């Protein structure tokens, strides 16, 4: 049995989410925003973040998946579920759990920018900066982390451990992690 090692505690996450929400609320100054959560990993972050925001906000989801190992470097991303509503003329804030190579977020920004939003910004809970392959701008960032496999607060290990209240580290090859 392997329990994830705590990297970012629940208290630290909650404090940072409140700080980010205050900064975002201040920047949008009461303008309505469409929050686009990227499934599945961002669902908990988006839930907490959205409850601390003060401007009018609607919530949409997209589900994407990277193509297999061999092709991820091409940046090819498959859209599994698209937005249900038009974002034309809307202020859009994409909410991601993690930015690793940056390819997923880069692809999403390219795609969403073709739909003529009034503005398009990004918010990510964690970023592995040393892994970046493309320059993608994260306007609101929770934490920079080292190149480790993280779980919890929405992030999974083979679909497990998403509901942990903290962000922990596991060995990605450990099949017993969390048992
Ligand atoms: P990208 O490399 O395109 O920035 O990130 C692709 C996806 O890989 C992320 O959205 C996330 O689903 C997954 N990912 C990358 N690093 C980690 C990690 O440390 N833990 C988990 N659970 N998922 C990760």
Topology:
Blueprint: E1 5-8, H1 10-28, E2 33-39, H2 43-52, E3 57-66, H3 69-72, E4 77-81, E5 91-99, H4 103-113, E6 119-127, E7 140-144, E8 149-151, E9 167-170
Bound molecules: guanosine-5'-monophosphate (5GP).
Residues 41, 66, 98-104, 149-151, 155-156 line the site of guanosine-5'-monophosphate (5GP).
How many helices? The count is 4
Listing every helix as H and every strand as E from the N terminus to the C terminus, the arrangement reads: EHEHEHEEHEEEE
Number of domains: 1
Task: Look at the structure and give the mean pLDDT.
Answer: 92
Strand tally = 9
Which ligands does the model contain, each kind named once?
guanosine-5'-monophosphate
| Distance from first to last alpha carbon | 5 Å
What Rg, in angstroms, do the CA atoms define? 16 Å
Instruction: Provide the β-strand percentage band.
Output: 25-35%
Q: Mind describing the biggest β-sheet?
A: 6 strands, mixed
Q: CATH first level: which class? A: Alpha Beta
Q: What would your notes on this structure say?
A:
Helix content is 25%, strand content 31%. The chain is of the alpha/beta class. The chain has a single domain (5-170), classed as 3-Layer(aba) Sandwich (Rossmann fold), CATH 3.40.50.2020. Helix 1 (10-28) packs across helix 2. The longest helix has 19 residues, at 10-28. The protein is globular, with a radius of gyration of 16 Å. The N and C termini lie close together (5 Å). Guanosine-5'-monophosphate is lined by residues 41, 66, 98-104, 149-151, 155-156.
